[in-house]
Specification:
Blueprint lengths: L21 E8 L2 H12 L2 E4 L7 E6 L2 E8 L10 E6 L3 H10 L3 E9 L3 E7 L5 E7 L14 E8 L2 H12 L2 E4 L6 E7 L2 E8 L11 E7 L3 H10 L3 E9 L2 E7 L5 E7 L2
Parallel strand pairs: 1-4, 5-8, 9-12, 13-16
Antiparallel strand pairs: 1-5, 2-3, 3-4, 6-7, 7-8, 9-13, 10-11, 11-12, 14-15, 15-16
């Protein structure tokens, strides 16, 4: 297991995330209690109540540090069940307007989440959903580098170049393409630091899902985590395999939310 990392900020809290950095991941589901049981058993998460502006919502904690959020969808909302990354912003209203001007849409907000901060939920021109977070009391994910914490966020879409221009204009990213004749991939950078990826998969983009963001969660042992996930009622979409960054599996929870497990290369 890698060493836990948290960055110090004013008053002993963790530092504010640079605009454009994925700072939080959140999942909206129909069965909040059963979803907590699943992820609690898979990652060792504990839960405490969070802002209720969008309905019942809990924050997942590891060793007392907030790492992710899970909310309950209204019974009449039949939206795709998916993990959604939130990208940091110093002014969510300005960012939301820029999203609209660049061909994206804003479906929720901007609105205040109590004293925690201000948020909006939008989608890029290809339809992939993401959140925007302007931090106040809640800065975002407070722990990285240990099992059960978000490790990476990646946009799975038809092709990388055109949608990358949208994210670069809205959030100010630089890009670093992977030079390969048969692999369409861009890494998004902030101040030279990789923060997210865009993977163009062409016609392999899932028809039932379309373009979407996928979150990678760190695990100590990918094979063991996949076995545990299956025992808990999850689904293995792509079994563990070695990659340049570690051993990776693509999975889904019992309600169908896709995510990846990564045992990072040591």
């Amino acid at each position: 297991m890698t060493e836990a990392r948290e960055s110090a900020g004013p008053g002993g809290g963790h530092a504010r995330h640079t605009p454009g950095t994925p700072c939080w991941v959140s999942l909206m589901v129909h069965g909040l209690a059963t979803t907590q049981e699943f992820y609690g058993a898979l990652f060792g998460w504990e839960f405490q109540p969070g802002p209720q502006q969008l309905g019942p919502y809990v924050r997942a904690l590891l060793d007392g540090h907030e790492v992710a959020g899970i909310g309950q969808l209204p019974p009449d909302r039949h939206l795709p069940i998916a993990w959604t990354p939130y990208l940091a912003s110093d002014d969510v209203d300005v960012t939301a307007e820029t999203v609209r001007l660049c061909g994206g849409t804003i479906g929720v907000g901007p609105l205040d989440a109590g004293e925690a901060g201000r948020l909006a939920i939008g989608s890029d021109p290809s339809g992939a959903v993401f959140g925007i977070w302007q931090a106040a009391e809640h800065r975002g994910t407070a722990l990285t580098g240990v099992s059960g914490t978000p490790a990476w966020n990646e946009l799975v879409t038809f092709e990388s170049v055109s949608v990358a221009k949208f994210y670069e204009t809205v959030f100010g990213y630089d890009e670093e393409p992977v030079v390969s004749a048969d692999f369409d991939y861009l890494t998004l950078l902030i101040e030279g630091r990789p923060v997210a990826g865009i993977h163009g998969v062409g016609t392999s983009c899932p028809r039932d899902r379309g373009p979407h963001w996928i979150t990678y969660f760190e695990v100590a042992d990918a094979d063991d985590a996949v076995e545990r996930l299956a025992d808990l009622g999850g689904h293995v979409l792509s079994p563990p395999k070695d990659s340049a960054h570690g051993r990776v599996a693509t999975v889904a929870d019992p309600e169908g939310a896709r995510f990846s497990l990564i045992e990072s290369a040591r």
